[in-house]
Amino acid sequence: MTLIIRAGVGTVNLTPLDWQGNKEKVLKVMGKAKEAGVSLLCLPEMCLTGYGCEDAFLAPHTADMAWRLLQEVLPATKGMVVSLGIPILHQHAFFNGAALVVDGRVVGLTAKRFLAGDGVHYEPRWFKPWPAGVRTEFRQGGACVPLGDLHYDVGGVKIGFEICEDAWVANRPGALLAAKGVDIILNPSASHFAFGKHDVRRRFVVEGSRAFGVGYLYSNLLGNEAGRMIYEGAGLIASGGELVKEGDRFSFADEELFFADLDVERERALHARVASFQPDLRDEPDLCVRIPFGWKQGQMNTLPAVKREKELEGFERKCEDFSHAVALGLFDYLRKSRAQGFVVSLSGGADSAAVALLCSLAMRFAVQSIGWEETKRKLAHLKGMDKFRNVSELIRGTLVCVYQGTSNSSEKTRRAARVVAEAVGGEFHEVEVETLRGEYVRLGEELEQRELTWEEDDIALQNIQARVRAPFVWLLANLRNFLLLSTSNRSEAAVGYATMDGDTAGGLCPIAGIDKQFLRRWLVWMEEVGPRGIGPTPGLSAVNALAPTAELRPLDQLQTDEEDLMPYDVLDAIEGFAIREKKSPLDVYLALRNLHPTVQSQQLCQWTCRFFRLWSRNQWKRERYAPSFHLDDKNLDPKSWCRFPILSGGYEWELAELENQVKEEGH
After folding, report:
1. Are strands 184-188 and 4-12 parallel, antiparallel or unpaired?
2. CA proximity to 401, closest of 362, 429, 363, 364
3. Scanning 185, 314, 437, 460, which has its CA 20 to 30 A from the CA of 587?
4. Residue 309 above 60 pLDDT?
């Protein structure tokens, strides 16, 4: 008889260590699954504790609480098979595990074999990898259940696990599970957003279903879970090498469920036709947990491939993903921090305009995703939420933009700031801080007993102007219990082109993970095209028409960022070669020569040396940046991706060698 199993995937927006909140969301997903007739449900990695618990994973209390919550949700699994991710403390070591629950009972714990330990991941700091082919018993609170490299025979259907990173490695466990005759693989994951990463997930899920001859269920987290990482949800169900169901990306919902009916006999028949398939005929009963279960029959025996809208490609796809990811990150950060809104110090330039725009998009996407009433419910902590009648009023009530002018501020940037604030729908204020700047300069002159001049005191005079702007916006943020957002981008972070306690002031920096070159192009795209369902923001033309400038020197000096540093496309290229690809200064210079064959060697050498010296000199600034969102593998955040010594030799030996070589070439 053909067996058709209704299999579901749940994606959940969790908060680390929020025991009650996480439990309620998991129960809600299970309730939806039961109503839909789902028999098999896959939930995300660490779905009871949250994935981003950091060193709290090393506290035995965390594992104890996870086990306690697991017991509390068991009654809701009656009549179902459900996987729930939890940390496991066993023999004085912690393991990343997935509990398989059958009809209200924990029947086994499968432990993760391959731990994510690169980039933003630190799993080996907390967990031990489970060795292949090992089974033991786990005892907790009187319970005794199998633990290890397990798969399960549940009512005649074999189920196995690949837990997140397990599926990203070359020797993924799925191959061994396929040889053991597994019918369905569950993948509970916590896979953060990065540009282009979702396409990789799709490939390994679909290819896994084909190569292993299985139904494949992939679940993921959703939203800004713990502060830095953003999860796009977008769970997947594949069968026979085809994607049959896919969840929404960047949903603002607390949880989402989708399901498909999997024809187990069809999967087995397809696998049997593969000439290269060789089953493992050894009997290893210890690694297979056998549990009786009566599967409910599903409703269909065909699996049409999922039809997706034509996807955007290249630059436009990146713009859409950036808009949605950062907007979702900001929305969740606002509600989970219990802040009342955002303060942005608008300079009239690209960076602050981008931050203000993203705050506006956070509210627009929320309403677009979950509707006005659900948005109101999720932001119920806002004091004025009951008075807001639409999304425009919500934006104005949660976004304050402030332009702080001095004698060095131009009318162009003043106007640009006003126009941008109006275009994004925020509250706008223009204040003058020239008197404050002048008083600090006077105090400095009195102390030094000389006049401060731009020729001799350039950096000090620029920095004090940037710093006098911070106290007022901090005051405003404190008065309203708003989040002050800093506005430095990744290109500036690389070379320290930012004033500590000035434009870096803030509790969160939404754009520190993205380069200036992309931000400028994104703002033009937002002006002319905009995200699907939102459209363009024409008012951004006031910013896009201006050359990037800090406006910290007198206007007659015509200060621009690229004159101070180098062209941004060159800066971003050097950063890619030097930091991401770990090339030496000489190799970076040679790579630049290939990219810019018409630029003089002396100029390329100068830019290369300037980058490395500024990079080395300014690690202390990167250590002090406000938390930022992880968007791709170019992140410079030393707390989550790129570590570098605060004190170092600064590549002086290598740079001297490079400069000498270029001089000799010139002769």
Report:
1. unpaired
2. 429
3. 314
4. no
pLDDT at position 438 is 94
In tens, the pLDDT along 361-389 reads 999 999 999 999 999 999 999 998 999 99
Gap between the Cα atoms of 466 and 451, Å rounded: 20
Percent of the chain predicted with pLDDT > 70: 96
Angle between helices 516-528 and 314-337 (to 10 degrees): 100
Residue 69 makes CB contacts below 8 A (sequence gap 6+) with 19, 22, 23, 48
Please enumerate in sequence order all residues whose Cβ is within 8 A of that of 96, keeping only pairs 6 or more positions apart, or say none: 45, 46, 85, 87, 88, 111, 112, 115, 123, 127, 163
Q: With left for phi above 0 and alpha for psi between -120 and 50, is residue 241 left, alpha or beta?
A: left
Alpha-carbon distance values, 23 to 16, 42, 47, 229, 422 (Å): 12, 15, 9, 21, 42
pLDDT tens-place string over residues 204-240? 999 999 999 999 999 999 999 999 999 999 999 999 9
**Taking the alpha carbons of 441, 444, 449, 454 in that order, is the dihedral positive or negative?**
negative
Distance of CA 54 to the CA centre of its chain: 16
What is the pTM for the complete model shown? 0.94
> If you search the block for the tokens 């304050």, which residue do you land on?
400
DSSP state of 539: G
Closest CA to 633 of 531, 490, 486: 490
